[in-house]
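Is it possible to get an amino acid sequence alongside its tokenized fold?
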Amino acid sequence: MSERPALLLVHGAWHGSWCWQALRDSLDGRRVETVDLPSVGSTRHVCTTMPAIVTRIAD
């Protein structure tokens, strides 16, 4: 049997990776990754008016 794929959860406007915590908890046993996009969460201090795609990939 093949391994189930990992899930990547990306938040919407005015949210951060924290908004996925309840869902992450309910998906026990699955590999789940979340991200903080530039301008919110833990990376808001590095935000510019128009972050480059390289910045988003690095995050």
In short: The helical segments are 21-26, 53-58. The first strand starts at residue 7 and ends at 10. The chain has one domain: 7-58.
